[in-house]
Design goal:
With 706 residues, the chain is of the alpha+beta class. Helix content is 28%, strand content 27%. Strands 1, 2, 3, 4, 5, 6, 7 and 8 form an 8-stranded antiparallel β-sheet that branches. A 5-stranded mixed β-sheet has the order 14-15-16-17-18, covered by helices on one side. A 5-stranded antiparallel β-sheet has the order 19-27-21-25-28. A hairpin with a 4-residue loop joins strand 5 and strand 6. Helix 1 packs across helix 3 and helix 5 packs across helix 6. The longest helix is centred in the first third of the chain and has 32 residues. It starts with a strand and ends with a strand.
């Protein structure tokens, strides 16, 4: 397995020339890096004008590995080749490193670069990438990989420290300024291609460098010639916390993947980091976890919940919970007087849907408050503290439909708001509490359960109690403090407000099904097809879909003939009685391409995780078929028509199945009026968790964007 590393952008607040003077002092060997035994210059080539210097070195490394492993490998030292390209005119240094030792068994590759800060020419940026691929190593591949990653992580931590050490050494010698390189003067003419020695900027390639400003606010600074949005190491420490080099790498690589597949519509770094922590920084697991949540947020428009959902009056009167200042660590504090809440009455009067939306709105507000407290307290705050008062809890709270609603809410929160609960303080737990805990604890993540602190009776008033976590001046009055807490008193919901069973059943699970987006499965040999009838030419068909599993091919066809629904007994001869999972096909196998139907858009291959939006301006009235087809090898795609054998195989092979979530809309020609701005109603409401959005340009006839 290939191990990869990507660093954040590390900023030295010193000019490039001074950093280079410090950098060269680490050769031929550096006492601060014991494993770096020695290095020798193999070759050195300088351009005629002196602007470019290419230096090749052979470096000797003493890996801290068990002696037995070294003896089995037959080596005491490892040798690496380093190639440095210094461009004094553009003020850049590019470093390429690869291994000589065991090059047929192990491939080590590293690339580093020093560049001028895009917004401050007296500062220097550094970033690096590396990869390790151990193909074979005497049966000790896993051990060798762990040793190599441990050594590399240690050297990364030392990197900035070493440069700063030599900067101090230069300062002690009285060297605090080194003039910039200037080209030689030939016949009174200065030979130079860069103004004032600054790197050239390409306005066609803008990206952003996210960094922390001195006043504590996040700056989104335009950077030119960088391929993607990059993170400043100081920004990570200020707004995300102390991460190990490998954890930083996981965050950056996941952000890069999101940028490539979602084209800028990515969640904020704090949110991405929560999903990484929830999966112990396993990149593949965190990516799958996050994508499922982003799909859920988009499907149910959760990002707009705080702005669009109006809490029913019943919740405002009888839901006994609310935000109350912050704890000693600066985390937002939410107080829930569960024992005073008539959960049965709320479920009977409002249904599970309203309670679930209430809890989701609390979590969304918690995310906002964490960001605000991060700015206020000047340190990363990514979770909140919840205080639950159980005084009054009784068997009424164990009413089965109420417990069912609670379990469902816990399941949704665990799946979409990981690592948001910093601490849960459960006070005045009664004797019935263990029964409730037995029911709900299996659904709570183990890491989350470790954050629970339970106090029976008045134990919270003693040592190790509430005062260890909350300042005395904000302890609520109902817990013996002096602070007034603006939380509803609760009480019994009048039975006259209860809904009938029929009313509650009609709204059950609406949050999971009432969505402008629909889901579909695509099987190998059985594409998913959607029919749209157009009565007026120049109408606009718009689409927005996410590929949540597998790869698909998206096509649009036009036909003047109305497709006939397939016969129910098409596969009856094969003894199949139920084909609910197989998609009905609209394009009849007897149809002739170019005669009965035609393709109106070039086929688009969409990869797993991609989000695709686009539109098509219809030229003719008739029937348009949107088709999502399983993407397989070229040998398997000779025909888009399903075969019986393929359908049967698709029912048995789970890998031959794709999933999409889609939304389509048709705009009449008089609404379109020749301007793509009228397509605003079909935009993809992806996420307020997004730090950036993307708008795609539209062509005269159609547009497809990802």
């Amino acid at each position: 397995m290939v191990q990869e590393y990507q660093s954040p952008v590390r900023v030295y607040k010193h000019p490039f020339e001074l950093i280079m003077a410090a950098y060269v002092r680490r050769f031929p060997k550096c006492p601060l890096i014991p494993v770096f035994v020695n290095s020798e210059v193999v070759s050195k080539n300088e351009s005629e004008d002196g602007s470019t210097l290419v230096t090749e070195r052979r470096c000797t490394i003493d890996i801290d590995a068990p002696r037995l492993l070294k003896r089995m490998a037959g080596v005491d030292y490892l040798y690496f080749t380093q190639r440095n390209t210094l461009n004094r005119r553009d003020r850049t240094l590019h470093i390429e490193v690869h291994n000589e030792t065991f090059s047929n068994r192990v491939i080590v590759s590293e690339s580093c670069k020093y560049t001028v800060h895009p917004e401050n020419e007296d500062w220097t940026c550094f970033e690096q990438t590396a990869s390790l691929d151990i193909k074979s190593f005497f049966g000790f591949e896993s051990t060798a990989e762990k040793i190599a990653m441990k050594q590399y992580a240690a050297s990364i931590n030392k990197g900035k420290e070493i440069v700063e050490y030599y900067l101090r050494e230069l300062e002690e010698e009285g060297i605090t300024y080194i003039p910039r390189w200037t080209p030689a003067v030939v016949s009174g003419t200065v030979v130079s291609s860069a103004k004032d020695g600054l790197p050239s900027k390409d306005p066609a390639c803008p990206t952003e460098l996210v960094s922390g400003s001195p006043d504590g606010h996040i700056e989104y600074v335009l950077v030119f010639s960088l391929p993607t949005v990059k993170l400043d190491a100081d920004y990570i420490r200020r707004y995300l916390g102390d991460l190990t080099p490998l954890q930083e790498s996981c965050l950056i690589r996941l952000r890069q993947w999101l940028q490539e597949t979602h084209k800028g519509k990515i969640p904020k770094d704090q949110h991405v980091l929560r999903f990484l922590r929830a999966r112990d920084f396993n990149l593949d697991k965190a990516r799958e976890f996050l994508c499922q949540s982003l799909t859920w947020r988009k499907q149910h428009q959760v990002d707009f919940l705080l702005d669009t959902w109006e809490r029913p009056q019943l919740l405002q009167e009888f839901y006994t919970g609310g935000w109350h200042h912050h704890d000693r660590d600066g985390r937002p504090l939410y107080i829930l007087r569960l024992g005073q809440m008539d959960t049965k009455g709320l479920v009977r009067a409002l249904g599970e849907e309203a309670l679930l939306r209430q809890v989701l709105s609390i979590n969304e507000e918690g995310l906002r408050r964490c960001e605000e407290n991060t700015r206020v307290f000047g340190r990363p705050i990514s979770c909140w503290t919840c205080l639950v008062d159980l005084e009054g809890l009784n068997m009424r709270h164990l009413w089965r439909p109420g417990v069912k609603a609670l379990l469902r809410i816990i399941e949704v929160v665990e799946a979409n708001y990981p690592e948001t609960l910093g601490r849960l303080l459960i006070l005045r737990a009664p004797r019935v509490f263990p029964v409730l805990w037995t029911l709900v604890s299996p659904l709570i993540d183990e890491n989350t359960r470790k954050k629970f602190l339970v106090y029976a009776g008045n134990d919270y008033q003693g040592p190790g109690g509430l005062l260890d976590y909350i300042d005395r001046e904000i302890i609520p009055d109902f817990l013996g403090g002096d602070c007034m807490c603006e939380i509803p008193e609760g009480g019994m919901v009048p039975k006259s407000l209860y809904r009938t069973a029929e009313e509650m059943e009609s709204e059950e699970n609406r949050l999971l099904s009432d969505s402008i987006y629909k889901s579909a499965s695509i099987f190998k040999g059985a594409p998913y097809e959607m029919l749209i009838e157009i009565t007026e030419a120049s109408s606009v068909i718009t689409w927005d879909f996410d590929v949540s599993k597998g790869d698909v091919i998206f096509n649009i066809y036009h036909s003047k003939r109305a497709p006939q629904p397939p016969k129910k007994d098409t596969l009856g001869a094969h003894g199949i009685t139920s084909l609910g999972a197989v998609n009905a096909q609209l394009i009849d196998r007897s149809w002739v391409p170019g005669q009965d139907y035609s393709m109106v858009e070039k086929a688009l291959t969409c990869r797993e995780g991609e989000s695709v939006q686009g539109s098509h301006i219809t030229r003719w009235p008739g029937f348009y078929i949107l088709q999502w087809r399983f993407h397989s090898s070229p040998a398997c795609t000779a025909s888009s028509l399903p075969r019986v054998d393929d359908v049967l195989a698709s029912l048995q092979v789970s890998s031959h199945k794709c999933k999409i979530m889609f939304y389509t809309e048709v705009l009449a020609s008089h609404d379109f009026r020749g301007s793509m701005t009228s397509l605003e109603s079909s935009h993809s409401g992806f996420s307020q968790l997004s730090g950036a959005t993307t708008s795609s340009s539209q062509s005269h006839a159609s547009s497809i964007s990802r």
